[in-house]
Amino acid sequence: MVTPALVEAGSPELIRVDAAPSATLEGEWMGHKLQFFRGRENRAWFALCGVDVEASAGPSTLRIVVRPAKGEASAYSRAIEIHPGHYRTGSLTVAPKFVEPPAEALKEIEAEGKLKATLFAESAGEPLWTASFRAPVDAAPTDSFGTRRMFNGKVASVHKGMDFRAALGTPVRASNSGVVVLARPLYFEGNCVVIDHGLGLYTLSMHFSRIDVREGQHVAGGDQLGLSGATGRVTGPHLHWAVRWQNAYLDPAKLLKLDLDEAR
User: Fold this and answer.
1) pLDDT of res. 131
2) Are the C-beta atoms of 178 and 196 separated by less than 8 Å?
3) What pLDDT shows up at residue 156?
4) Preceding peptide of 4 cis, ω within 30°
5) Bridge-based pairing state of the strands 74-83 and 7-8
6) Residues near 157 by Cβ (< 8 Å), separated by ≥ 6?
7) What is the edge-to-edge ordering of all strands in the sheet holding 89-92?
8) Do 30 and 135 have their domain in common?
9) Residue-range definition of the domain harbouring residue 14
10) pLDDT tier for residue 8 given thresholds of 50, 70 and 90
11) Is the overall model pTM greater than 0.85, yes or no?
């Protein structure tokens, strides 16, 4: 079973498979390896995954292999149609250095790119999150995820997070339990906190005015990560919150609506 049943570009998806606790499960979807874990009360197997915001619409095939402790393995496949996400186009004006970074900033940006690639490749081998995710701030969200943006009329990009209208100094909290793998200033992201929730799932919070956690720290859902701000590439104070699974960016609003209580 795949939830939500209507799969769109940017959708997080929860896959449930009924199989014996002693079985071993493998899966593949859209070039991604699925990692299954046993659900709450040991009733079923689950994989939390998703479709990147920039994925092309069209057919896809979900493949799962169930290997029992004894006997023959069973292979299953299911056709899944990927529907287009309905995202807007917008335009922003930011400081010129964030559109065409000066030469002295390019090495910094390159080093940060390598750092992020390393940390995203080393996710915990088990789910660290528990139950459903919650919003990171008590502030109004926008529908900015997936917006095709022009910066200063020149550079097009896809907005891969959700913006909250958080005033300067608003407490930002962990949306679920996990390990802080990054807590430092970055060129574009400003003061940034990244939490590994296990099995390739991360949340990223950007533009803090103050960071209150350290790298390597275990946090529970609701723990304060810092205060919102306007550092990095911004037009004003707000919180940019992103959800990443493997190398796919998912719609945070859809993750907040996904009922995960049965899984963990």
Assistant:
1) 95
2) yes
3) 55
4) yes
5) parallel
6) 148, 149, 151
7) 89-92, 148-151, 155-158
8) no
9) 2-83
10) very high
11) yes
